[in-house]
Amino acid sequence: MNPIPDIETQPQAVIRQFQEEKLAVVLEYLSNHSTFYKRLFKENHTDIKKIRKIEDLKDIPFTNKADLQQYNKEFICVPKHKIIDYITTSGTLGDPVTFAMTDADLDRLAYNEKISFQCAGANPGDVFQLMTTIDKRFMAGLAYFLGIRKLGAGIVRVGNGIPELQWDTIGRICPDTIIAVPSFIPKIIKYAEENGIDYKNSSIKKAVCIGENLRAQDFSLNLLGQSIRDKWDIELYSTYASTEMATTFTECRFGCGGHHHPELIICELIGEDEMPVGEGETGELVITTLGVEGMPLLRFKTGDLARFHYEPCRCGRTTMRISPIIGRRNHMVKYKGTTLYPPAVFDVLDNISYIENYVMTVGNNEFGNDRIIIKVGLRKQPSFDIIKDLKDHFRARIRVAPEIEICSVDDIRKINFPDINRKPVKFIDNRNNTDHHAK
């Protein structure tokens, strides 16, 4: 049986027509069941019958995170007795948002992850080791479990951290695939090296990576991805997802972008003028969910900047592919004339062997311009000038060198892992006293 859904191999025109038919169903559903969107349509004088094409979406106002926070319950489209699972977003940009999922939504989530894992070459009978949490109101861990179950594969729910337990599990159960945040993989490699574990000949053949970029915009491995491959010759697959989308973009074996599942989501890219960008240009991802029953979203601004690629893939899929995420629109930093996003800074720091942990803080200098301070904790104390070496690394990779402070590993760990956060805090934005955080 071909694991690729039929719609994902069709010509672009067929995919577009398919999505436009799905869009009409979503609009009708929202106008009948969503308090928030009923009001939006009325206040904007939106005649949903006139929204026939993807291009017509521009006549509907955007939905954003602030709407979800302020009117959270008004997005719920089902009576309370139909809600099976309550989850929340990570809350890295403010108060967490609650999402209500029905039985049908959980089935959709399982389908999404099943076809995403198949995109990464997974098969029935494979065994996955989950190195991320499945509790704490977190969607991703539950989604992976449901998708792997639907695929007919096995799963070991180890959770995040604890390298010793990860290796004990690998030794006992012999999984072939790990699901992990990529920056955790060097930590388990380091633990294996220090404890005489022959990790290169373990059962692990593949890593499905979440939450961080593995690739540069040309799809070559970035510094983090390359540093993993240099140590451990396993297949690396990058993914991109969010709670709001309830959909995953996953690479195939050719590693040239996350594949779009047109049966699950409509995607737009908009520029700073909030109009669609030209083909090949960078824009903010805006999504409309398809087939969601509990809390569908229409034209939701994700804040993530990306590019779309439309050339058919060698894997047989003809769907759009999304680039590695460039950054978040509101995290853009203008520093000494250079435009930066935190992932570019993280990529430099993740590949420096003597750094144990770090946090990037952005504030305003006395002239109101952006000021970057990088606080680093050291794994070991090199004999050379650390600050000079770090600044040389930054200049070589991103052309500018931020301010650097050496701190204790414990102090930075407390910043990275506050009690209330599920995801590590690596970026703090103190510009104009906004004081919001991101992973």
Main attributes?
439 residues, six-stranded mixed β-sheet, 11 helices, 23% strand, disordered C terminus
Describe what you observe in this structure.
The chain has 439 residues and is α/β, with parallel strands linked by helices. The chain has 11 helices and 22 strands. A 6-stranded mixed beta sheet has the order 4-3-5-6-7-8, with helices on both faces. Mean pLDDT is 91; it is low at 433-439.
The CA-CA distance between the termini, in Å, is 39 Å
Contiguous low-pLDDT stretches (5 residues minimum) are 433-439
Strand neighbour order, sheet with most strands: 4-3-5-6-7-8
* Rg from alpha-carbon coordinates: 22 Å
Largest sheet: 6 strands, mixed
Number of strands: 22
Shape: globular
Q: Give the oligomeric state of the chains in this entry, treating copies of one chain as homo and distinct chains as hetero.
A: single chain
| Total of DSSP H or I helical runs spanning 4+ residues | 11
Q: What fraction, in percent, of the residue positions are helical?
A: 25-40%
Specify the structural class.
alpha/beta
Mean pLDDT over the full residue set: 91
Question: What proportion strand?
Answer: 15-25%
Q: How would you sum up this structure in a few lines?
A:
This protein is α/β, with parallel strands linked by helices. The protein has helices at 12-33, 35-43, 65-70, 103-119, 139-151, 163-173, 185-194, 223-231, 342-349, 386-398, 409-416, and strands at residues 83-88, 98-102, 127-130, 154-157, 177-180, 206-209, 235-242, 247-250, 258-259, 265-270, 283-289, 300-306, 308-309, 321-322, 327-328, 333-335, 338-340, 355-364, 370-378, 403-407, 427-429, 436-438.
